[in-house]
Amino acid sequence: MNLPNWIARRYFFSKKKRSFISWLSILSMLGVGVGTMALVVVLSVFNGMEELNRQIFKTFEADMTVFPKQGKRFLASPELLTRLRQTSDVSLVTAVAQDNALALYDNAQTVVRLKGVDDSYLQRQQLDSALLEGKLLLRRNNVNYAVVAEGVRNDLSISLIDILTPLEILYPQSGQSFNILNPDAFNRERMTVAGVFFIESKYDNFVLAPLATARTLFGYAPNEVTSLEIQLRPGTNENQAKAALQQVVGDKLTVQSRDDLNTDLYRTIRIEKLLVAVTLGFIILVASINIFFSLSMLVVEKKEDIKIMFALGATSGLVRRIYLTEGAIIALTGAVTGLILGVLICLAQEQYGFIRLGTESSIIDAYPVRLDTSDIVLTVVLVVLITILTSWFPAQRAAKIGTTR
């Protein structure tokens, strides 16, 4: 029989007398439990927000993107495109010409982000789930079409039924002095709106157009692009693919993954997650201070019992383990209960989404959550460290009673 565990359980679970110390221990257990539950839930919400953003970006952005290290455009030679397509694990390579432009429709106008793409873009099927109205079409029967974001449609009051009113895109000509009254100061292209998509507000000003149309509008040469977007085969190791692609494109171009393009957002989420974890950790520590007080008072209350144990041959180590075990019972009972409740809440939220965001403009209805094993391990380690910290000094004080006269 483990004597320290048996005595510690007797101290905590005894029903003969519920003293103030017993109630303080229960209060400590509840505080640790609530803090642990809150820590698990909040960290899971941050994980869910990070995963949600990844899913949003995956709807519009490529797995890998090639940019020039200097300037905003570069020459994508047929040889470069061929080498990229022949690279292992590469599925599709899309040439892109992208810049800000002025969009006109009927009597309305707005600034848009025009993204010219080649035919491989629609093969990626990324926007299929984001299409609200119309169809994904860029060119058919020598007619140029555009696919616009919901924000552009609202700003310009675009009607897909009205096929007679074109969407006109204006871009300043290079070498011309800027004068809005000069009709020759702008390149102009007209397109029919084929569809409307919606992802989230970050992409609300985008207009997708044929690559040749965008090049003509921007005054680019036939092989000039602002970027190359690369889709990888499923199951590909992104870090290895990124290194292989960087060797192909050389030193003048850089390859960035989807996470690299949004690194500032992910860094912000992780910093906020860390700050919240530290804050909740301090809350658990404050709740655990009650363990320190309850054990300290228990040592005073059981002083005569401790002397009797020493008289019967107990060692200082045995007495110390009794009170350390008592603190562990209080803290770990609350922590395990809070951990189970936190996991159950996260699973229920993930399955049923009963906690709503309360905003109509959001692309999801409920708070996203994702349980991460590392967060649970971190929570357990944090509670164990706090338990040792708050239980050690009362246990050490009890161990010294037998040495005092």
UniProtKB/TrEMBL annotation:
Its primary localisation, in coarse terms, equals: membrane
Q: Which Pfam families match?
A: FtsX, MacB_PCD
Its subcellular locations are:
Cell membrane
The yes or no answer to whether the keyword Membrane is present is yes
| Keywords of the record | Cell membrane, Membrane, Transmembrane, Transmembrane helix
Topology in the lipid bilayer? Multi-pass membrane protein
Entry-linked InterPro entries: ABC3_permease_C (IPR003838), Lipoprotein-release_system (IPR051447), MacB_PCD (IPR025857)
Indicate whether Transmembrane helix appears among the record's keywords: yes
Q: Which residues form the MacB-like periplasmic core domain?
A: 25-247
Limits of the ABC3 transporter permease C-terminal domain: 279-401
Q: Which residues cross the membrane?
A: 20-46, 274-300, 321-345, 376-395
| Family designation | Belongs to the ABC-4 integral membrane protein family. LolC/E subfamily.
Which protein is depicted?
ABC transporter permease
